[in-house]
Amino acid sequence: MKNKWKVSFLVLTAVIIVILIYVLYLLFQPVEQKPDADSVPAAPPESQAEFNVTTTKEDLTIVANRFLEEELNGQIDFSVALDDLVALQGSLPVFNSEIDFLMTFDAQAMENGNLLLTQESLSLGALSLPVSNVLKFIGDSYKFPEWVNIQPNDQEIIIQVTEIDVAAGLNVKTNQFNLRDNDISFSIYVPR
């Protein structure tokens, strides 16, 4: 009979130890947080604080030229002019000379917030050349920022506005880009 009581005692002691370990385990678990009515939960990117900016062709021309000058560090000598079309004009170094160029694009906002530039015309000096070949040459010859996507076969350039690092944490999205009606608007998303 001594063995029966001894076994029962050891089983009871083991059960108590297991229960004690389980209670200690539960005690040291983090407390489930209930949302406070006054606190605002972290917002996903699509619901950050949003500012809508409307601008004109003239003002956007100034901003675009300043931004390109800083971003490209003088690698390519060109400027942007916005009228009914987007016009890029400047010069390309070829051998020991400079060749003037003028490229015009129709611009439209894409659903994803980026900007699509579709080639309308291209002139190098007094020559009109095949657009796809020149776009390929430009894309291969110069290092553009990652947010500039040149697609020579489609005669398009996609400006990935949503990928531009404007300032710490800010994101930009193109809403409207109708140059003919001077209807240009962007959304700027600020992280909380």
Q: How would you characterize the overall build of this protein?
A:
Keywords: Membrane, Transmembrane, Transmembrane helix. InterPro entries: DUF2140 (IPR018672). This is DUF2140 domain-containing protein. The chain crosses the membrane at residues 7-28. It comes from Jeotgalibacillus campisalis. The strands form two sheets. Strands 2, 3, 4, 5, 6, 7 and 8 form a seven-stranded antiparallel β-sheet that branches. This protein has a three-stranded antiparallel β-sheet with strand order 1-10-9. It has 192 residues and is α+β, with helices and mostly antiparallel strands. Helix content is 28%, strand content 37%. It has helices spanning 2-27, 57-72, 131-141; strands spanning 49-55, 77-82, 86-94, 97-109, 115-124, 127-128, 148-151, 156-159, 171-178, 183-190. The protein starts with a helix and ends with a strand. It has a domain at 56-159. The protein has three helices and ten strands, in the order H-E-H-E-E-E-E-E-H-E-E-E-E.
Using brief descriptors, characterize the structure shown.
seven-stranded antiparallel beta sheet, elongated, 192 residues, single chain, three-stranded antiparallel beta sheet, 37% strand, alpha+beta
Mean pLDDT: 78
The count of β-strands is 10
- Indicate the structural class: alpha+beta
CA-based shape: elongated
Helix content: 25-40%
Number of helices: 3
Amount of beta strand: 35-45%
Gyration radius (Cα, Å) is: 31 Å
H-E order: HEHEEEEEHEEEE
Distance between the termini: 72 Å
- As residue ranges, the low-confidence spans are 32-44
- How does the major sheet shape up? 7 strands, antiparallel
